[in-house]
Specification:
It is built from nine helices and eleven strands. The chain is an alpha+beta fold and about 325 residues long. The chain has one domain: 3-Layer(aba) Sandwich (Beta-lactamase), CATH 3.40.710.10. The strands form four sheets. It has a five-stranded antiparallel β-sheet with strand order 2-1-11-10-9, sandwiched between helices. It has a two-stranded antiparallel sheet with strand order 3-6. Strand 1 and strand 2 form a beta hairpin. Helix 1 runs antiparallel to helix 6 and helix 4 runs antiparallel to helix 5. The longest helix is centred in the C-terminal third of the chain and has 16 residues. The protein is globular and about 55 Å long. The relative contact order is 0.18.
Length: about 325
């Protein structure tokens, strides 16, 4: 989408009041606000068929994830599906949501913009209490906290520039722009709706295929993304003083050679979720792995990547 059109959309969304039930946002590009998604209560339904045929014949035993895939991509934006299981199944995605929160913030905010942490942001459910009410951090400081430590308070704080409803409008609009047609966002953090007193069916959902597509966009369109998610630790400064060292929640980072980033997520309803990015021997190629609703996401991902590497090296 043309950057000017994106900015026009942002200005329209910010300048008008948002209300629950909004169904349509028209722009010159004719992008629709996602208000007519498949019924989110049917979260385990198979949506469509994967057109590509997996290129490996993995014998996978003990994989607990309900849905997964490993996709090989390159700078020419060519895709090779290596292994998959129901990659189009709509499922809750927990904190993998924050990939889109990051994309919207990075596109519509300036890195040096100051954001004041409100009481509502600091008191978000399932937060790690990295932030306190009244803290003032720049966008570029909040983003690593959100992506690496999966901080809900940092993610929510990023929405307050335009307001939560406006920010969610941008998240869903961006999903439409990227053709993530089986993806819907109801909050910027990924928490289960019960944690915020929201209706049971208002839960963020996506598919392994859509998450891989979103990740591919981040790799090739947002160079700073890999720089952030590749770090195992991040020093948190407040008023010029280091107050703590944040730890990356991706346990495979540094454990498996080639893994250069990823995003974790887990809630009661989503189970364990994980996206990882691995760079191949060809520096222009990447493997994107996604597992959803797993009982052991790191073991599942290790098994998938081991199988893929063995089959592709034969």
């Amino acid at each position: 989408m043309n950057k000017k059109i994106s900015l026009l959309i942002a200005s329209i969304i910010v300048s008008i009041p948002f209300w629950i039930g909004i169904n349509l946002l028209q722009t010159k590009a004719n992008f629709l606000f996602i208000g007519e998604q498949a019924n989110p209560s049917l979260l385990t339904a198979q949506i469509g068929q994967e057109s590509a045929t997996p290129q490996t014949d993995c014998i996978l035993e003990g994989i607990t994830a309900e849905s997964f895939l490993v996709l090989k991509v390159n700078k020419q934006k060519e895709n090779i599906l290596l292994v998959e299981k129901t990659p189009n199944s709509q499922l809750p995605i927990a904190s993998i949501t924050k990939l889109m929160t990051y994309l919207v913030a990075s596109e519509f905010y300036k890195n040096e913009q100051d954001i004041i942490v409100t009481e509502e942001a600091a008191n978000q459910s399932n937060t790690l209490n990295a932030l306190s009410v009244g803290d003032i951090l720049k966008v570029k400081e909040l983003i690593p906290i959100m992506l690496m430590e999966s901080s809900n308070d940092a993610a929510f704080a990023l929405t307050k520039v335009v307001g939560e409803e406006g920010f969610l409008g941008l998240m869903n609009l961006k999903a439409k722009e990227l053709s993530l047609f089986n993806t819907r966002f109801y909050n910027p953090t990924g928490v289960d709706p019960e944690a915020r007193g929201m209706p049971h069916d208002q839960i963020n959902f996506s598919t392994a295929k859509d998450i891989a597509k979103l990740t591919k966009n981040l790799i090739f369109s947002n160079p700073e993304f890999l720089e952030i998610v590749s770090k195992k630790e991040f020093p948190l400064y407040k008023e010029g003083k280091m107050v703590s060292v944040l730890k990356n929640t991706n346990e495979l980072l540094g454990e498996i050679p080639g893994i250069i980033g990823g995003k974790t997520g887990t809630t009661d309803r989503a189970g364990e979720c994980l996206m990882v990015i691995m760079q191949t021997n060809n520096k222009d190629d990447y493997l994107i792995g996604v597992v959803l609703n797993s009982k052991d996401r790191f073991s599942d991902m290790k098994a998938l990547l081991k199988c893929v590497k063995e089959k592709t090296s034969e």
